[in-house]
Each structure stands twice: as structure tokens, then as C-alpha cells.
Give the backbone structure.
Amino acid sequence: MIFGSLAARLSIEMAMSDALGAPVWPVLWVEGASCNGAALAGVQAFALADGRIEPVVLDGRVLATRYKVGDADLCWVGGVLPENPAVAPGLQTEQAFKNLEKVLNAAGFALGDLVRTWCYNRDLLEWYGEFNRVRSARYREVAFRTGSTPASTGISATNLAGAALVLAGLAIRPSDPARGAKEIGSPLQCPAPAYGSAFSRAMEFELDGSRRILVSGTASIEPGGATVWADDIHRQIELTMRVVGAILEVRGLGWSDVTRALAYFKSPAYVPAFEAWCREHGWENPPCINLHCDICRDDLLFELELDAETWRP
């Protein structure tokens, strides 16, 4: 997952190729601008220590990798675009989800195996309602293995193709259905479908001795679904972190168990407030990339997503 200036694409791709060789894995690249003026905001890579990784190639592009962890099959999908970037955003959304399903099918998975998605939409604030309508309609046709819609993040960001959106996702198919992923509700927020967004607050699953929680993009939203503390970045950060912390706590995890995070800021000027919160609460050197992006509501100033993991004794 590469977040940075599209103008710096060539130099960043050359650096990646020099360090790692020609990519044989999916890449999700969005213009999630840095908060410090750098061309590259950051990179997050998902690596596998043991086992075989099978690339999934469609239309000449590696769009997914299939692999196994313990007794579960997994598929990571990245960089899925609509077929025609010139049509209306709602139609592009339909095309992108059809292509996501096509990629999963080519890997031997179904749309119902998804446990996590990332949706980076260009000019999101202008058409977020339409995006939610199309996504919700598509999901109503899917029998999700977990019984719930995937955890998700929806953020405003530009992509390499200039399309209305680009998608990524994680699908899991356990050999034992009883050990599959399950939805984790938020103790401090209502379910997102209550206000028209088709995603789960968090997903939890076990893999080869570890228990993992994927927390969706979370912001300053009260139990009834309304934004709170508009124009107050300190209070929005405080509430967001309290909500995320409660999700972790109810499953026996804490900030020290976080393995990956993305923090989204409506303005780079808000970063010091987040850093101050981390210092005050002992979250030292968080594995987090800070990004300058619009969030799904104009009055939301900050959003956080993360993964956390703990090992069974």
C-alpha cells in the first residue's frame, strides 16, 4: 500500500524495484498526501515468512496474491479499478465491485469471503451518498461467510488511473467454518448500517496461533450516528481514540498490540494534536502513517484505522 504524490510515481517505483525486484504482488497506490510535504507519505507491506504465494494476474496486472496461513486460505487484493473512468461515479462503483469479485473468483474466492476492504474515492465528499447506495445494494446480494459486511475504510484520495475510486481487500476462507472471522461491535458507537454505511466496525479472526482484529476507519461519531465536536480537533481525536481503544479492550487487547495503523487528517496542522495524545497515553512510536485526506464527512477532521494482534499462550 503506497501513499504519496502521483507526480513522484516513477522515482518511487524505481526505488521499490531496486530494493525488491520487479513486483509480483498487488499494489494499492493512492495520493494520500504526506503531512510534512514529502513526496512519499509512507508504504505498508504485508509479508509472509513461510509458505507459497500465488500471484493472480488479470489483464496483464497482478491484482491479488493467494496464500495459506495455518489451515486458512487468504487472498489480498489491491489496485482494483472500474472499467471506464469516464462514466458517472456510481456506475464506476458498480464496475469496481464487479471487478473485485472477478479477481477474487480468479483466486478461488468469492465476494462473500471478504473480511476487510479499503475504498479510496476521488472527491469523496461530492458523492459519498451515491457510493454508499451502490455498495449497499451490491452487498445485499452477497451471502458473507461471516454473516456481516466487511470492516472497511472510505477516504477521499486520487488514484493512478484518475478513476472515481480504487479498491483493495482481504478475503479469508478457513478450513474450519467455526474458526472463521466474526464481526466485533463498537461499545461506544452504533453499527454503521444504522446511518447508511455498509461496513462492520471491526472483524476478528484466528490464524495459526494468533488472534487478529481489524478495526475499520473510525472517527468522532456519537452512538446515534451524528458527528460530534465539529471544529475541535483535540476532542475529535480524544473521542476517536476512546472508541478504538474500547473495541480493543473488549477483546482483551491494547495499544501495544497494534501492528499497523493509518491516521487521516483533514489538515496537516492537526498532526501535533494526535502526537500529543499518543505521548500522553503511552503509545510510543506507533506503527502509523499520517495522511492528509478528506474524510467521509466535511465536519470530520480525523480518522484512524488499525490492525492489532495477540498470540495464544
Helices lie at 9-20, 89-106, 128-139, 233-250, 271-280. The mean pLDDT is 95. The chain has one domain: 2-311. The longest strand covers residues 165-174.
